[in-house]
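Researcher: Go.
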Amino acid sequence: MARSLAGKVVLITGASSGIGEALARELARRGAKLALCARRADRLDALAGEIVAAGGEAIALACDVTRDGDCEAAVARAKERFGRVDVAIANAGFGVVGPFDKLTLDDYRRQFETNVFGVLRTAYAVVDELEATGGSLVIVGSVSAYLALPGSSAYSMSKFAVRALAETLDGELHARGINVLLVNPGFVESEIRTVNNRGELRATAKDPIPKWIQMPKDVAAKKIADAIASRKREQNITAHGQAAIFVAQSLPSLVRTASRRVNAKRWMKDGR
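Model: Structure:
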């Protein structure tokens, strides 16, 4: 049975855009009190102001999940303002893409610093508080945690790691009264595909994924909020994402063959 999120204190990393921003609006609509965390303070201030103006409760907390101490400071501020934390959503992330021989070790390190160690920093900062409240740790993964395609080695590696972390923490933290939810989005409306390999937004970049296949971020946020309220262990977002995970798990040889053919065509096109 779903539990109400009204009055719950929710901390969200990566709340300045995409799924994080949509989740903030959806959870505010459901009566949650929000601690919004991200690097872009101007966007956070605007979002928090919008929520407060609509009668909700929210604070903006400048936080970089790649910096030691930032997550602890954000949790401390949230507790100072609201008294506790009931839900922490480790959502901050971006994607490093490209053939592995065109990437550098620094590219891989940068990817893991945000997508993996950023989740760990969030979890370490909030785990004791979630134990005290019997709360939930929500980890935003990806369909790429199940389906690794050519050109996505850095991103897929990070999301495979996050999936392993979520499954491990589910076993470890259940006895402490903490629910761990892994969310696996497919293509959702977001800026992530217009961010370069250094994590910098390219405002004029074209999203390579057609709009018709992208789930609106407010629809995705509703599904994630429902999963949080129901204390689920895993939630796949988008029908195509669910289908991709099914195929990856059920027909791995088919995926491998298709992946090789797609990559072979790209090599021929590039003259390699």
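Model: The two ends are 56 Å apart (CA to CA).
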